[in-house]
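Minutes, methods subgroup
Present: GH (chair), OT, SY

1. OT presented the first of two proteins processed in the latest run. Sequence and structure tokens recorded below as shown on screen.
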Amino acid sequence: MIATEAWSAVTSTTIQHCWNHTGIQAATAPSSHPAHADPGAWAIIREFATSETPLPLVEAALQQHLRSRYVASDWSSALKAVMDAEGDTAQATEAVEKLALAACKRSGLILKLSIPRPPQLEVLEEGLKDSIMMLKDRNRIFGTPLSVDELLDPLEEQENPDTMAEMFEDDDAIIAEVRRREAVRNGEVIEMDSDDEDDHEEETKPATTSELIALAEKLEAGYVSQVGADSSSDFLHHLRAFRAELRRDQMKNAKQTMLTSHGFSKRT
């Protein structure tokens, strides 16, 4: 009862003077560190770990040092670790140092780096803007021209994952595909859809004897008109022999058809 009355009689000014007397409080402006990583506050905790300072006095010192930045939950773990050591200075100091290191690592500072844009990028973007305006002036672009960002990152590529970068393995493959498309657009290359062609392709029917004879006659006439009828070429000789053989087969088939129609069958 007497101890409680005595402690209640201690003013905040008395507590401040006590800690100022120890020399462990910063006499300068408030620290720029986050409250839970404040070096002066941790100096108070370290002093508490190596002395017999009462807990209420330590808490008051932390409040006085941190002022509006003081949050009791920031220091509850450290104060509890010292109290749990029960006078073991080494154990209390070790626990405090671990907590202090952890608090400094989660300082909460956010670093924002300002990286200057390369001059080459500025030049390229300005050149692209000039080209866009030139096309606009020549009525090659209708409506509002796209911005540089919209040109470099088209909405179609954002919505469609099947972009060139994902379809091809490297830059050389992309360049080859672009050139192929340009050739198709300029009529230099004609694309054939092989799947449709296979679906609609009809089976090739063998030519009839009459068609082969007509073809042989056309070949012979063309050869004679180019080379001459008196040529002793092996090609012309074989072509005429082939045509004669076709005519014999044609006459034989016609004779057999006639006999069959009159009720006669071919005897083997």
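2. SY then presented the second protein from the same run.
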Amino acid sequence: MDPSFGLTSRAGVAQAGHRWPICRTVSDAVEVLDVILGFDKRDEATRTASKYKPRGGYKQFLNANGLKGKRLGLVRHPFFMFENGSVLPQVFEHHFHTLRQGDAILVDHLEIANIDVILSFSEEDAELEAEFKISVTPVRTLADVIAFNNKFSHLEKIKEYGQDILLRAEDTNGINKKNLLKLARLSKNGFEKLMKEHELDALVTPRYDVSPFLAIGGFPGISVPAGYDNEGIPFGICFGGLKGR
């Protein structure tokens, strides 16, 4: 589960990164969220986001019949384009049937404006790298992390995995405000517009493919287990939406 921007503190976390409680059940995730949300003097954004915190916490909204009447959007391209022979199409159609049985309203074959631009948008990665360098500094400088990895390269498996993101982040020189404004415009005219025009409660995608859209706008999302692919690797189904929904 990735909460709305500012709902939980970013202190010690890359600002464009994710703060995901990983739990066994949705109920457990809500229990954790109720504990970790709230104001943190080290992160001013938590003051602004306090308006989204319901009195009594989120646990009160756990409801076995909570899908009834909820409008769930499906963007087939490119999220549900799978390889030939994949078990995923059949698995997700089964999940869609389950959602309909819960009286959810599935709004199918939607399109997000500028979706290809966002999915190939290098500026998002650049801002993440810049924020990563800034956010890590209070704990340990990024240069120290890189040096540690080089010193213990065998243990850290640098040959196998590298540390390209860390190196690019170290080379950044701060946040590019023009990039942030461009990302905000893309979000407003794309994902946010889709959600509002179709009055959606959530957008449903396989795995966590919608994460770039949620990260750009600081929107919440939750991914729950959905099955196993042809190679036995587990995957999830993600529900992402606007703040305060």
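Chair's summary of item 2: The CA atoms of residues 15 and 131 lie 6 Å apart.
Next meeting: continue with the remaining queue.
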